[in-house]
């Protein structure tokens, strides 16, 4: 892959990332899978910092899917405690970097101590005006759409909404992502060509970038490569 030191000129407003390959990264080194997640959390830190630096406005990270609950209990517990510790130790850094934390998903499924820390970090950073970091936790796009349909039906039943008025914009207002623009760029690490139940509604027009790099190896330079590639694609379309 070509690498350029030039500053990217075209910056996606919203980047979404499927962080994949932690398990393979650990396996290649004869380490437990949880070690891959631990080093993966360092990649999260690096990517948040770089997005802030580049002036990206929204960054959505697929940190735990609805399907991830099916993993061995030990791994789920390790991921939850890693998340809780990450939030606790990184909130001061988010404050320094003016990062506002948000979360999407069925957050009530998370262990209570994890929910408490999440809500504390969200409240602490709520007035920050830089990058909005959105963690997708216990998130599944089909579940989000089902929750959105229930919320729409509720509005219709209560007489707040006329069924005939429902269109794309109104539907989008009933999704977890109602406060954010759709992603401009979706990155998936570790080479898999799948969406894995991530933001199905929101990625209708999103540019897709897949890299063979495993998530623990995806750092600032790799994020820049993806942003450069996004800029090249945008320019090509602009010229047509
Ligand atoms: C996918 O790798 C990764 C996850 C299921 C979890 C992502 C979590 C982190 C990056 C660390 C913690 C996150 C935060 C926000 C602090 P995989 O286990 O599916 O890898 P594999 O496909 O190689 O098995």
Structure description:
- It is built from seven helices and six strands.
- Strands 3-4-2-1-5-6 form a six-stranded parallel β-sheet, with helices on both faces.
- It has one domain (14-141, 182-231): Undecaprenyl pyrophosphate synthetase (3-Layer(aba) Sandwich), CATH 3.40.1180.10.
- 45% of the residues lie in helices and 14% in strands.
- The chain is globular, with a radius of gyration of 18 Å.
- Strand 3 (100-104), helix 4 (112-124) and strand 4 (132-139) form a beta-alpha-beta unit.
- With 240 residues, it is an alpha/beta fold.
- Farnesyl diphosphate is lined by residues 19-24, 37, 40-41, 44, 61, 63, 68, 82-83, 86, 135, 215.
- The site of farnesyl diphosphate has 18 residues, from helix 1, helix 2, strand 2 and helix 3.
Secondary structure elements and their pairing?
Blueprint (H helix, E strand, L loop, with lengths): L13 E5 L3 H7 L4 H22 L3 E8 L7 H24 L3 E5 L7 H13 L7 E8 L1 H17 L10 H5 L12 E4 L18 E4 L9 H20 L1
Helix pairs in contact: 1-2, 2-3, 3-4
This protein binds farnesyl diphosphate.
Concise synopsis of the structure shown:
This protein is an alpha/beta fold. 45% of the residues lie in helices and 14% in strands. It has one domain: Decaprenyl diphosphate synthase-like (Undecaprenyl pyrophosphate synthetase).
């Amino acid at each position: 892959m070509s690498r350029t030191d030039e500053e990217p000129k075209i910056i996606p407003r919203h980047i979404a990332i499927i962080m994949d390959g932690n398990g393979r990264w650990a396996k290649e080194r004869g380490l437990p899978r949880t070690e891959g997640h631990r080093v993966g959390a360092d990649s999260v830190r690096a990517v948040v910092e770089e997005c802030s630096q580049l002036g990206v406005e929204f960054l959505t990270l697929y940190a735990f899917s609805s399907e991830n609950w099916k993993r061995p209990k030990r791994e789920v517990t390790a991921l939850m405690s890693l998340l809780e510790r990450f939030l606790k130790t990184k909130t001061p850094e988010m404050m320094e970097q003016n990062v506002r934390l948000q979360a999407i998903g069925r957050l009530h499924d998370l262990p209570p101590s994890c929910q408490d820390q999440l809500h504390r970090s969200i409240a602490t950073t709520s007035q920050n005006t830089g990058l909005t970091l959105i963690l997708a936790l216990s998130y599944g796009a089909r579940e989000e759409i089902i929750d959105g349909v229930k919320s729409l039906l509720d509005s219709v039943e209560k007489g707040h909404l006329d069924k005939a008025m429902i269109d794309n914009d109104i539907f989008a207002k009933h999704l977890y992502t109602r406060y954010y623009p759709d992603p401009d760029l979706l990155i998936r690490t570790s080479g898999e060509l799948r969406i894995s139940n991530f933001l199905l509604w929101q990625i209708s027009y999103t540019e897709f970038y897949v890299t063979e790099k495993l998530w623990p190896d995806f750092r600032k330079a790799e994020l820049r490569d993806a942003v450069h590639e996004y800029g090249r694609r945008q320019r090509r379309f602009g010229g047509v």
